[in-house]
Each structure stands twice: as C-alpha cells, then as structure tokens.
Amino acid sequence: GQVIRLSDYRPPAFRIRHVDMRFSLNDGHTDVETVMEMERAPDTDAAEPLVLDGDALTLIALDCNGVAIGAERFEATPDRLTIRDLPPSGPFTLRIATRLTPETNTELMGLYRSNGVWCTQCEAEGFRRITYFLDRPDVLATYRVRIEADREAAPILLSNGNPGEHGDLDGGRHYAVWDDPHPKPSYLFALVAGRLDVLTDTFETQSGRDVDLAIYTEPGLADRAAYAMDALKRSMVWDERRFGREYDLDVFNIVAISDFNMGAMENKGLNVFNHKYVLLAPDTATDGDYAGVETVIAHEYFHNWTGNRITCRDWFQLCLKEGLTVYRDQEFSADERSRTVKRIGSVHGLKAQQFPEDQGPLQHPVRPRQYREINNFYTATVYEKGSELVRMLATILGEAGFRAGMDLYFARHDGDAATIEDFLTCFAEATGTDLSQFALWYDQAGTPELYVTEHFEAGRLTLSLRQSLARGAAGTGIEPMHIPVRFGLVGPDGTDLAAEPTAGTAEVEGDVIHLVTAEAEVVFSELAERPRVSILRDFSAPVTLRHEQAYEDRLVLARLDPNGFGRWRALTDLVGEALRAASMAGAGRPALDPRLIEAVVACAAEERLEPALRALMIALPGEAEIARLVGSNVDPEAIHQAREGAIGAVATAGAETFRRVRDGLERSSGNFSPDAASAGRRALSNALLMYLSAADGTPALAAEAFRAADNMTDRMAAATILAHRFAETPEASEALDRFYADYAHDPLVLDKWFTLRATVPSDATLDTVRDLAAHPKFSMANPNRARALIGGFATGNPRVFHQKDGAGYRWTAERLGELDRLNPQTAARLATAFRSWRSFEPVRQEQARAALSALASRPELSRDLRDILDRTLS
Ligand code: DPP
Ligand code: ZN
C-alpha cells in the first residue's frame, strides 16, 4: 500500500465553506445529495483539477453551479472523483448525488445500520464512504443536514449542531433539519436515525445559557443512561472550572449504539458511543464499567474544545487532540475520585499497553512521520504516551504556567486546524520557556531508561542520573530529552526531609529534578542521616527506571513513603522483580521472600490506606506484565507457575489477616452505590476473596460469594475465581451456567461471559473457544462480541494463547482472517496481540511466525490488517 508522509503535507488547493446535505433513508438504500459551496485556495494554479476522496462510492449525479458536468470533464472511480475546468476564481457550487447501502456496510465506517438504527462513524476517513469530499481535517465547513425517513422506522432523526425545522411528508415519512454553525472537518460529521428511547436533562452554563441534554438508547434502556448523564453534567462543570471552557450549542446529544468499532466518537453536538460506555445498572455493570463510562463520557465531551473547536491540521497531529484530551479526562477522574488510585491505574495501563508497543515492532513516535493506514494509529502511544507528554509539560511549567499556555492555545487557535508546533509555541510564549528540547518527545520513539545511583557520605547525598534511549523499530532519534524527575528524600519517620540541593549539574525546582543532559548530578549536604530516596514520584516521566537501591531501603519505602504512588511503586516493583527472577529460574523456586510476603500482607490491613489503594498494593503483577519484565526468551508456562506459587505463599501467610480485614469491611447492604469509596471496598474485599479461596483450596468461599452477590462487581469477581482457579469443579460449571441463564439476553453482560470462559488458564480452553466461536450467541459482525472472545483469549489468557504447540496462535490467526473480511479495523486492532512475539522462547517464536505468515499469505487481506502483519513480521 501507499505510504503517507508528514513531510508531503500540502495545504488543500480548494476550500469548502458550507455543506448542505439531504439524506433520504430507506430500507435497503440511502440517497445522499451533497451541495458544497467551494472556491480555489488563493495562490493555487487555476488549471489544477479538483480531486475528491471517495471509498466504495457510486456517483449518481454531478453538477456545478446548477449545470451538469459533462463526462469529458470528470472521472469517477469508487475511491476518487477528479473534476477539471472548474472556475479559475471565485465561489462555485458543486452538487454530488450518491447512493449507499448501509445495510451491507459491515466495516462500520461511513453510514451503516446497527440493530436497525442508521448511524455514522467518520473518523478518520469514513465521510468519503458517504460522499466524494475533501476528506481531510484541515478543510472546515459549516453544515446543514436534512434527513428524511419513514416515521415508524425512524421517529428520531439526529445530526450535528442545533435542531431546525421538522415535519411530516407524504407516505408516512417525515423530515428534520439540523444546522451546525461551527465550522468543522468532515470526520466530525454524524447522523443517527431510528427507534430510540431517550433520557433528557438540562445544564446551565457558567454564563447562564441553557443546554438541552439527551442520551438516546435502544428501546427500554434509557434508565441505564442515568450515571452517564450525571457524568456528563459533572464533566461540563469541571471544564468550566478547570479550563474556563463552556459548551457552545443549544443541545448536546449522545447516542448509544451496539455495533461500534471504538469506545466512542466526539462528533460535534452528537456524540456516538459504543453502548458499553453508556449503559449501566448495578446488576449488569462492574465498578470498572462505571469508572470507564465516566472516563469516556468526559473524554468525548472534553473533545468539544480539544479536538473540535481546535482540530488537527493532518492525521500526523492526532496526539494534539487525543493526548491532550486523555490528559484532561485523567485529571477529571483524579479530581472526581482518588488522585493516587487514578494515577496508579493510568501508569499501570501505560506500562501494560504502551511500553510493549514502544519496545516492539509496532513502535512509532507520539507524532508518527508516516503511515499506510491511519486507523492503525489510534494507539496507546498516541493516546496514553501523548497524555504523559502533556502531563510532563504541566510538571515542567507548573500549574499556573500550564494554565497560561492552555489559555493562549484556546484564544489563539479557536477555529483552527493546528499542529504540535502551534501547541508548544503557546506554552513557550506564555511562560518564556524554550521547549525545543522537550519537543523531541513527540518525534523520538522508544522508552528512555533512567539510571539512578546514590552515594551517601558524611551527611552528603549525591544522586547521579543518566538517561539513554535505544533506537528501535521506528528508527527515530536518540538525543537526550528533558526528563522531569519528581523525587522526595524520606526520613526515618516517614516524612519528607526539607532538603535543598547544595551543588550539582542538574537544575532542581521544588521537588522536580530537570534532567536535560545525558548525565547529571544533584548533591544534598548536611543531612543528619541517610534518607531513603523516593524517585520518579507519580511517574513524572514515561521512562523505565533503573534505580540501584538497597533492598532494605525499598522495603522501607514500600511501608512508609508518604507519597502513595511511591509506596505502590516500591512494593510492586519488588514483587515484579522477584516474579521475574523466579520465572527465569524455572520450577521449584519460591518466588517471594518472607519479608516481601509480610509487606504485602501488612498492606491489606493498613487502615490509614484507602481500600482501593490496598487492593492495588496486594495485587500481584499479571502474567503479561511479568512477561514484559522478563523481556526475552519468555516462557509463559514458567511465569504462570511462578505467579501461582506466589499467590499460594501470600494466601497461606495472610489467611488470618485477610479473613479479619474482609469481615471488617463494610459489606454492601443491597443499597448499591457506584461511588469511588464503595467501589474501593468491593475491590479490596474481592482481592481478599481470591487469596482466601487460594488458601482454602476449595471453591466453597467463591461459590458462596457468587450466590450472595447483589451486584455485578461481586458476582463477576466470584465467577472469575471459580472459573479461573477451580475450573471443572461442579461449583464453577454451576456458576457459569447460572450466569448464562440469567444474562443471555443482555449483550453487554454476555460479552463478560464470553471473555470469562476464553480466559480460563487451562488446557481445555482451546476447545472451549472453538465451541464459543460456533455458539449461537457469537457474532463476528459485532465488534464487542468479537473482542470479548478473540481479544479476551489472545490478550487475557497468556498461558493458552501462547501454548507451545502453537494451537492458540493458529486459532486466533484464523479468526482474524474471518473477521478481516467483515471489519478490517477491528481485525487489525486484535492482531496487535501478536506484537511481542519475538520476546518468547524459540519454539513459540517459530509457532507465532508460522501462524502470522499463514495469515499474511492470504491474498485478499485488508490494508488495515496487512499493515499490522507486515510491521509485526518485519
Ligand atoms: N472517538 C475516538 C476518541 O475519542 C477517536 N477520536 O478517542
Ligand atoms: Zn479521543
């Protein structure tokens, strides 16, 4: 396929000022008429033809200024419309008619039908599947959209902007008009039509304007949108208070759709959501689901300013809106919930998703320089590492400086299609800071290593820091970057010493060391005694920390670092390293030493720690995380055994404590509340239940918890213990059958059941997933269901996916080949489960290579999947 390069960027030769669209929706086909008010861009060649993007389109009619364009003046293919001899200057009007069949659109890009509902997805390049257009984010137009449909089939007709006139038509049909006064790129276009229920509310903005809020769902489910509505209103308040950003239309509509490639989409005034991120009830959704809905609702709402009012010049700048908006949603969640717990969750996610990407064949910089398929760049690097870069900017500039830069960005670039350079320039100007070195973070791929050593002598502590970056698959630069290193010097009583540096080669500002060279030193003098160094607090930079620190010191920090994140990091790093060593040493070696076990057990009972944090501290790193720590020649079987051994050891040592703590936790009393504190208590209680079940060695406790559960969090936790730890016991089968019988009608809960069964770490699971792929409730066409089964297996079941005979790889690759024929975007996304294949031991590497090569040898693969496979195998 063709490579698109950032260096080839040219501004558009034509402008589209305004778009007037008419959609006539019918069963079996949709007619689209698009009228564009256009003109040539100044300084472009008057003879240059207009080249519009298309994708699988059929042209029905074409005219300019009301006159049909003769066949000799244009050329139409499914993916391009070229028109010659357009007016050399001045405005002109182009009218294009196309006919679509949304019913057969299984890619779920452009206009498609989901359970009978017409809906659209246009980011990144879906609008060109609706009409021929300059489908690029730097072409901004106002839109007026008229939708006609059968009143019975589609009583609800929605598009972007504010509602205009509506009324009845002949033959049982009706129409509605929508006006979007804010110029927007085509990727933010949306249309939804169908039979939908609605939950409504209102919001008064800080300047006193009333906004009508609505969340549309499939019939009978609107009451499940209540928490999403609450999260929306809290997001609107937060963006006003924190960033001074007010909403700008009369209405804000959200629609929950059951077939959706992404989590959600920030279309102007009409967000379209995967229903997974809208619909919640205590009986069907876990605490994790509640937190996910809050995050995604906030994320898409925040895009209204960071993404929509200020959009991206080109898709290479994707992190301009995504990294910044993830940062904003993380800050929102931190303010609404627990900052420490939120930060741990974000760092955990970064290490689990972004680090392997950054260290494997799919490596790319936060701002890529080239792509073959832009859909494959909605990645953890663009989103999560992109957010870390914004967070570092805030750390480097301080709260006031960061806010000043944001204010300037909003003031200067409102209405623009901007670049990373535009963004950074605002911060540089607002604070008088040179950010040219910081900008390297956007262009240099890879995870820098940060080496720290300490030397203490005669009251003098010297910290030596060194950074290094290895060149990886992306082949980008390896220059030293600006790494902000937050730190604390912890005294014997567990408080931070107020020590100022007295010498050194690195600048220190408050609790941040600015490492801007390859190596630097910081010296603290006249210390009464040797402090424990708590480094990289709050994960102040996305680096791999290599801190040469005494085991004793680390154990002490795990117990009394006053920084909650620092405690979590100290303890889980120790546990992770122990599990890494045990996995590499092979069977028979106990993974954790008694003091580490004691530290884990003690955390569970530490009353001054919030329960959610205790739950995180006592959780052992997952098998995929341990595999990442091992790094090469990975044996997933050895990892599984080592981790199981460690769970057994902690469970045995802690049983009494765990029982006492669990009994003492306030039990949910039938009055379910999804708030963070209640969720934290459930998280701790269920983490303890896992250990207690392991100590007991029977399914009895989990079976009892499953029966007693009055909410999905507790039910899911108990079912997971039964299915994963007591597979093939009658208790496990009974629970899985009960779960299915109770929820077979509820697609979102049924997804959990598919994943639960696909993730059982036992030899029988390969047969299970084969059966599940043929199950009447399985559908390859529904992305959530495909992800639940195939993704659940490939990313959530390391032991069986990486089975030594390669059967797990082959099964997955075959399913990806099937999925690719329906939905390339989802197939390509799931194929990234193979990205770390070269880190495994040779037999598995060979099996993975064979499975991937067999898939790659199919001639009919999509560009999406082909791109991922080529890069993964290269
Ligand atoms: N809908 C996706 C997101 O919000 C892509 N923009 O991140
Ligand atoms: Zn986004």
TrEMBL record:
InterPro entries: Aminopeptidase_N-like_N, Aminopeptidase_N-like_N_sf, PepN_Ig-like_sf, Peptidase_M1, Peptidase_M1_dom, Peptidase_M1_pepN, Peptidase_M1_pepN_C, Peptidase_M1_pepN_C_sf. Transmembrane segments: none annotated. It holds the Pfam family DUF3458. GO terms for molecular function: alanyl aminopeptidase activity; metallopeptidase activity; zinc ion binding. Residues 227-438 form the Peptidase M1 membrane alanine aminopeptidase domain. Keywords: Aminopeptidase, Hydrolase, Metal-binding, Metalloprotease, Protease, Zinc. Aminopeptidase N is involved in the degradation of intracellular peptides generated by protein breakdown during normal growth as well as in response to nutrient starvation. This is Aminopeptidase N.
